[in-house]
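hey so u asked for the seq, here:
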Amino acid sequence: MINDPAAVFFLLACCVAIALALEARTRVFGALGSALLGILGGMLLSNLGIIPGESPAYDFLGGPAVSAGIVLILLTVDVKSVAKAGGRMFAAFTLGGIGSAIGASAAALLLAGASGDETWKLAGQYTATYTGGGVNFAAVGAALETSGELFTAGIAADVTLTAIWMATCLTVPVVFAAGRGGLRANENPTGPYTKGDVPVYTGDVIAKGHEGVGESGSAGLAPDRDQIDDEGPTLHQMLYSSVGAIELADLALMAVIVLGTLTASDLLGTLLAPIPSVLFLTTIALVLAQIPRVRALHGAGVIGNYLVLLFLASNGAASVLANIVVIGPPIVYFAAITVGVHGLVIFGVGRAVGLDLPTLAVASQANVGGPASAMALATARGYHDKLLPGVAVGLLGYAAGNYLGLAVSGVLRGMIGG
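ran it, structure tokens below
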């Protein structure tokens, strides 16, 4: 097994490079997208025993690296996009939180005998983590004083299910749009068309104006000049091309902005706890993005996107399926039932009330993985108008998840004891 962090970085970088090449050149892999292929590649390497399930490389990519990627991507965001998708995103996010609470409650009632006296605590933690992300799992676990063994087992199951659910959310919009034989009235009915050998989906599967650029089989295609309108390149175009030469001054300014933003957000997060530092990071980056010189930076989006893809590959590598034997099937079943019911509620009810699949997928990632995962999915699938609303509801989930998790645990403690 390769344990050297530099070698692990190398193999993850290979996963991303291969994923981008396959996405750009192969019809089937193009429909899956580079983000999903990167996750699967990392998962394959770790489960074959080539790289470990835990590594300092993953810690770095899941911490400073993805935070830097978030900052760089946010520098390309138009804040007006919030108004376009905000209400629908909040509705989808609310459905997801309700689904997680129902799922965790159902799992607790079904597995009370198998998962021990702390079942009610686990229900509260999984409600919290699948409402607002992994930060909530630790927060609610600390509040409920969950035993170390159950806490560790619960995290192991959560990591695996979170990676699997990211892959699911990346796949669902494309599969459903391609397989229905037609989209709903509020979506573009033209379905997929072909650009070269690559299927490109219009409508809400790929953001309007991005057809043939970046996603679902065309990530390797830089935008042609005639694809860039008078208002400048779209966000998705900037995520797959520098849209102009990257100069040394651009890199220097990006380094100052990223390092300064990470330092300031960590400092503010420490001084103003329990407000999460990612809230300050997002705010600072968005304010800076309104400065014309910062907005004109070449390469911020594409570098940020690459860091996100590396993070996703490391997320897949951290999901060692063999750990299921170690942590015990009941805990895995608990997490799987919670996520499964969450998915049924957010996608089933959401579609029934007319919410589009991209909004539901991004909101679900905001629930299950937090704002970073929501941003990663919105970036990977080109849902540029849903990126900032997804981050916004993900930040809301940090607070809402804790409240909801503690409420569910209290109710279940009264029902099943403990």
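The longest strand covers residues 192-195. Residues 182-230 have pLDDT under 50 and may be disordered.
lmk if thats what u needed
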